[in-house]
Amino acid sequence: MTKENKNVDIFTDGGCRGNPGPGAWACVLKYNGTSKELSGFEEETTNNRMELRAAIEGVKALKSPCNVRLFTDSQYLRKGITEWIDNWIAKGWKNSKKKDVKNRDLWEELHKLIQGHEVSWHWVKGHAGHEENERCDELVNLVMDREEML
């Protein structure tokens, strides 16, 4: 990690009620002892899209190049961005079965956004008492509950 950049932790989660169905994403950004919470809703989406959206929105919130530790409970997100994306790009956005990569629009957006930052990707077990992951899950459910009431 570069010393002159700010060190930011981003915690993310996404979820759906039905898959596809109504869904929400949330992230918690932590920098220098302060926290910022972001969340959003989509009427018709998938769990994986919400996991990606949470990471995208967290990185989008950064105002300058940062050293980011991004924490997710989604292996799809972590492995996609650290292991699979280079091959997808090299193969014209085809997966190992020569099928179109799902959620390409979000993968492309995330890949572009992280270019200005040093990002390390960390997996945390969901629903296992990790404070920030639990908070993100709570925010996701609060957003979905609110939207169901409207």
Report on the structure:
This protein is α/β, with parallel strands linked by helices. It has one domain: Ribonuclease H-like superfamily/Ribonuclease H (Nucleotidyltransferase, domain 5). Strands 3-2-1-4-5 form a 5-stranded mixed sheet, sandwiched between helices. The longest helix has 19 residues. The N and C termini lie far apart (44 Å).
Main attributes?
5-stranded mixed beta sheet; 4 helices; 5 strands; globular; single chain; 150 residues; Nucleotidyltransferase, domain 5; alpha/beta
Mind telling me which CATH architecture this is?
2-Layer Sandwich
Low-confidence stretches: none
| Strand order, largest beta sheet | 3-2-1-4-5
Mind describing the biggest β-sheet? 5 strands, mixed
Could you tell me the CATH topology label. Nucleotidyltransferase, domain 5
Estimated share of beta-strand residues:
25-35%
Quote the average pLDDT: 95
CATH superfamily: Ribonuclease H-like superfamily/Ribonuclease H
Q: Can you write the helix and strand succession as a string?
A: EEEHEHHEH
The total domain count is 1
What sort of overall outline do the alpha carbons produce when their principal axes are compared?
Answer: globular
Structural class: alpha/beta
Number of strands: 5
Number of helices: 4
Helix content: 40-55%
CATH class: Alpha Beta
